[in-house]
Amino acid sequence: xxxxxxxxxxxxxxxxxxxxxxxxxxxxxxxxxxxxxxxxxxxxxxxxxxxxxxxxxxxxxxxxxxxxxxxxxxxxxxxxxxxxxxxxxxxxxxxxxxxxxxxxxxxxxxxxxxxxxxxxxxxxxxxxxxxxxxxxxxxxxxxxxxxxxxxxxxxxxxxxxxxxxxxxxxxxxxxxxxxxxxxxxxxxxxxxxxxxxxxxxxxxxxxxxxxxxxxxxxxxxxxxxxxxxxxxxxxxxxxxxxxxxxxxxxxxxxxxxxxxxxxxxxxxxxxxxxxxxxxxxxxxxxxxxxxxxxxxxxxxxxxxxxxxxxxxxxxxxxxxxxxxxxxxxxxxxxxxxxxxxxxxxxxxxxxxxxxxxxxxxxxxxxxxxxxxxxxxxxxxxxxxxxxxxxxxxxxxxxxxxxxxxxxxxxxxxxxxxxxxxxxxxxxxxxxxxxxxxxxxxxxxxxxxxxxxxxxxxxxxxxxxxxxxxxxxxxxxxxxxxxxxxxxxxxxxxxxxxxxxxxxxxxxxxxxxxxxxxxxxxxxxxxxxxxxxxxxxxxxxxxxxxxxxxxxxxxxxxxxxxxxxxxxxxxxxxxxxxxxxxxxxxxxxxxxxxxxxxxxxxxxxxxxxxxxxxxxxxxxxxxxxxxxxxxxxxxxxxxxxxxxxxxxxxxxxxxxxxxxxxxxxxxxxxxxxxxxxxxxxxxxxxxxxxxxxxxxxxxxxxxxxxxxxxxxxxxxxxxxxxxxxxxxxxxxxxxxxxxxxxxxxxxxxxxxxxxxxxxxxxxxxxxxxxxxxxxxxxxxxxxxxxxxxxxxxxxxxxxxxxx
Length: 802
Description:
This protein has helices spanning 2-23, 30-50, 57-95, 106-155, 165-197, 203-234, 238-270, 279-303, 317-347, 351-382, 389-418, 421-455, 461-470, 474-499, 509-522, 533-561, 569-594, 599-616, 618-633, 673-678, 705-718, 755-772, 788-793; strands spanning 524-526, 529-531, 641-644, 647-654, 658-663, 668-672, 682-683, 691-700, 729-736, 739-748, 776-777, 784-785, 800-801. By secondary structure, it is an alpha+beta fold.
């Protein structure tokens, strides 16, 4: 059932990419393109004529695939013809118009006539291609409407209820005729076998049976164990081994039954033991074997009842053991449904017999669904007391899903009892197909996430090679793995959603997905710019190449060229920063140009954003311009010791938005560049790198100043950090209140190291002054107290001092 519905989608895929690929070849001439357009129009006419008669679902799928492929070809041809039309218009523009009163040269006139004739032909072909695309879209919509109508008609058909006598009376009335048809089916088949055998030993059939048995059992088991051993020895990481093992089990478990059934049926055909009327049933048996093998392998790969360490799903052992039989029951039910449907078609069963078989299929589906619901309900009840907070939330979602399935099962039961047997069967098949699709989606999403996040990680061999070869940071590799996993999982969800209705005729299904993918691959027009996956990929590749070139240039600039110049560290940083931003801007412009977005469009966009920048981004723009001024004028350089307000520290980094200053407590002060341009900033190292030590003190007026000066100079000389040039100096600053004020200076290599030497000099001076008996201090202060009464009366009594 699944493979028969998927066949039109595969046909659409092959037609689309084989025919369209040939039609879109860049080297084709206009005549060849018009010829291919004529073929596409003929294909559409054939599809239109085929729709004049009633067609079944498979024929509708094939016709839809042909219409979609023809539509893509016609659209692509029209686009390529437009390019040739533009080239012809350019040539006509180059020739120019004939000046009045002059006679054009014969060769120019002939060339003009030829170009105008080609232009008329290509313009007509472009219009035909557009019209063909519209007609194809109308045919596709007509087929989709017809499929929906047939689907609605089938599931809404009502017969007598199985609980009424009329239902069984119709079956009993048609029973003799159905019996004769079945007997004729088998008797004709046995007669063809006897006539085709002719007494020769059927070694082909026996060989086919032996090979089928070997493929189904020994070879399948060997391949499963071989793949597991190979993964243990060669696959990196436990998660990758676990996911690859699950995927390998599904591949082997699907192909082995499919090949075994195919070999068995083919052996019977080669031996002449396959009657012609039995071929359709045999083909259905082959398809059902592949699907049932896939269902069983899927359940085994997810649950892994006997090997819990390889289990993909986070399930306990008892849960996996109880759920494993459900995959076998679902596979057996699917096999029964497919074979019964094929048998009824081959025999030509009557409508009552077909309805009875559908009712039996619906009952089996309902029994399977109810059994699964009871098993899941018991598992939830057994773990209700030991659930954690996270498992409670997950259990709530499972309860809602189980309630929804119970409601659908009840609706299916009521529809079956009321006589809507096709609708009841559809609900059962839809639930089973959703379970298979959901399990497949869960496994594939786990595989994609395990592989993407294990291969693209900083610790993997590929991640190490990318980090060393391309200079990428480990976090960038990890982020790429996560983004790749998310993108692939979204694609899987989209494909699963498209497949959800495919087996039962609901909507366009998988072939609709291919047609939409093909239309999207041609690109969509946004503002005169064609956006398509190919263009986006091309732009991304160009951007990566441009950024790689910028990185290589920056490595050469910073490591080779700038060290050879006379620029200091700050100057090199300024040049490097400006070069980096210019290179990134050029790489972005190059990537946009690869998307056919010219510089004039970028300028238009920037002009449109200028209003928003002027009102909403004033501060950012101001800081950006201030950063450029700092980099150009360099009033502050990296390594300068500056003071901003009350904070003092070393300039660590200057960017186009802010400047980083490392303070004395090793914290970092981030100052917007506009603060450094518009406000007062003290730069202690702008004029030179030297630092100055200043010491101020006073001595008594009776103290010898020459001795004091000698002691201070000796203290300066004893400190190794004090420079000889400029030489230390000692000055008498003032004589105040019987005190001599000294102001002393010395220089060190940097203001950053001035604090320690100053402390050492002060300690040395205190020790020397104490030894020589020199009293140092500050100017004594006097406090005068004036009585309030005298002050108010204006008295002139001398105040008392202290």
